[in-house]
């Protein structure tokens, strides 16, 4: 087996984007932050009997996280690998004494060497297994009535839907599939066939170009998998229409996870001067405009995203005169606004993933503190700050501490008036807390 360098796992659900990998920014002042803080890959597992059925045997005592039903098996937990499993092959996982624990997808190239498909020994990991898992995920969204609010929806949310590494987002009658790990990569055609059969979309488009692919040793790939991509793809969420660029947009084209948080912002925007930082295609801005904001200044570093945002204002016949768009680095733009003594009544900060893993937490914390400190300074008394982190490496607690530090340094008192998370089509499996990557706080600056 070839030697691979230590890799840190990254939650695959919302990668850093914008043509920039934010990890480069947070790494700037330190040459090798990951080398000091990332979990080191332990020595490679011992190779067992090559003629045996593919099986991973864990080191003594390393079965505990699996017994708690956490679906990831790290390379350091593995005692030996029997058979000669290829990347994506299904392997049995056994504890040190040989007892069955799970069926998992194998990937020798990842620090997460196996991801669990099933905990039941009698399960067979085949097309029927995937059909049943996918049907369950679709049925759950129906049963929760999520289609009432939007025809854009995360239909499959990876580990939390029992399908590690698989993301499927629906935009009207187009599905976008993202394969984030070797397991779903192996079953790519089977998964596409099942989605075609169960959802009958006009197109299944593959966007397997997330940061996480690199960590899995998988090549970047995107393009049409089934059907044909219509010229225009659109979603309507909470009555607002958004054009979605499935082929070249960020992530799978749109940030579905913020749907309900955007709607909340809309309900609080009336009569306010709003600043929307990291606005992408105008999500929060459009809700604020519809909600009766006095003015909305939106900032993003992506010119393409800003163009689509302005198209979206037209699509919804909103008052373009109230909207100002700025293509800029938010870190610089906030400083300029502070120097100009501009003030706002409602600010949204929804940056990309500054800390994909805990290894980046320290540098990312500084970046979060910086923008939030500036945000607090730009708010009028009584103003509202909607602040988010989609970093898997930043916990709820740490995020709240960072924001508290930012308010203190900005010299303001603030109250948390609401805690926010991703919308319900992004469920979090209780045994997989990494699924809760998106955290938000609504803060009110005390006058
Ligand atoms: N709030 C958006 C999603 C934001 S995603 C919505 O509801 O749809 C994060 C955005 O930050 C992306 O559009 C990306 O282009 C932008 N971005 C990343 N780094 C940036 C920077 N330093 N300055 C400005 N924008 C940045």
TrEMBL record:
Keyword vocabulary terms for this entry: Cytoplasm, Methyltransferase, RNA-binding, rRNA processing, S-adenosyl-L-methionine, Transferase
Stretches with biased composition (Polar residues): 1-18
UniProt GO molecular function: methyltransferase activity; RNA binding
Pfam families: Methyltrans_SAM, PUA_3
One of the GO biological process terms: rRNA processing
Domain spans labelled PUA: 54-139
Localization (cell): Cytoplasm
Source organism superkingdom: Bacteria
Composition skew (Basic residues), residue ranges: 22-31
Chain residue ranges for the region called Disordered: 1-60
Keyword Transmembrane helix in annotation: no
Family according to the record: Belongs to the methyltransferase superfamily. RlmI family.
Name used for this protein in its record: PUA domain-containing protein
Origin species: Sideroxydans lithotrophicus (strain ES-1)
């Amino acid at each position: 087996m070839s030697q691979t360098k230590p890799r840190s796992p990254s939650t695959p659900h919302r990668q850093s984007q914008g043509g920039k990998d934010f990890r480069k920014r947070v790494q700037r002042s330190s040459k090798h932050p990951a080398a000091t803080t990332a979990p080191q890959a332990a020595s490679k597992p011992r190779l067992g009997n090559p003629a045996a059925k593919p099986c991973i045997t864990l080191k003594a005592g390393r079965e505990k996280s699996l017994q708690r039903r956490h679906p990831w098996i790290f390379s350091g937990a593995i005692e030996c690998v029997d058979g000669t499993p290829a990347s994506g092959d299904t392997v049995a996982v056994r504890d040190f004494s040989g007892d069955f624990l799970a069926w998992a997808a194998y990937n020798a190239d990842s620090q997460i060497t196996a991801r669990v498909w099933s905990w039941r020994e009698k399960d067979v990991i085949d097309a029927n297994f995937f059909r049943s898992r996918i049907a369950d995920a679709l049925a759950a969204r129906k049963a929760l009535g999520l289609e009432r609010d939007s025809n854009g929806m995360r239909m499959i949310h990876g580990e939390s839907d029992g399908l590690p590494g698989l993301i499927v987002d629906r935009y009207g009658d187009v599905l976008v599939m993202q394969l984030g790990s070797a397991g779903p990569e192996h079953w790519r055609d089977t998964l596409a066939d099942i989605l075609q059969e169960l959802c009958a979309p006009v197109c299944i488009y593959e966007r397997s170009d997330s940061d996480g692919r690199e960590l899995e040793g998988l090549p970047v790939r995107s393009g049409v998998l089934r059907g044909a991509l219509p010229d225009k793809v659109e979603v309507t969420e909470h009555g607002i229409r958004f054009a979605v660029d499935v082929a070249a947009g960020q992530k799978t084209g749109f940030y579905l996870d913020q749907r309900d948080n955007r709607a909340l912002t809309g309900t609080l925007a009336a009569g306010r001067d709003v600043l929307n930082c990291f606005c992408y295609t105008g999500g929060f801005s459009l809700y604020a405009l519809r909600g009766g904001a006095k003015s909305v200044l939106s900032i993003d570093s992506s010119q393409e995203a800003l163009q689509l945002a302005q198209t979206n204002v037209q699509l919804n016949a909103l008052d373009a005169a109230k909207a100002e768009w700025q293509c800029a680095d938010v870190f610089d733009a906030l400083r300029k606004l502070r120097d100009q003594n501009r003030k706002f009544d409602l600010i949204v900060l929804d940056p990309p993933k500054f800390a994909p893993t805990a290894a980046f937490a320290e540098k990312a914390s500084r970046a979060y503190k910086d923008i939030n400190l500036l945000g607090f300074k730009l708010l009028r008394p009584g103003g509202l700050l909607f602040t988010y982190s989609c970093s898997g490496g930043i916990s709820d607690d740490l995020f709240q501490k960072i924001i508290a530090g930012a308010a203190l340094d900005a010299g303001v008192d603030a109250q948390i008036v609401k805690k926010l998370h991703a919308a319900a089509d992004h469920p979090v499996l209780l045994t997989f807390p990494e699924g809760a990557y998106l955290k938000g706080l609504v803060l009110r600056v005390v006058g």
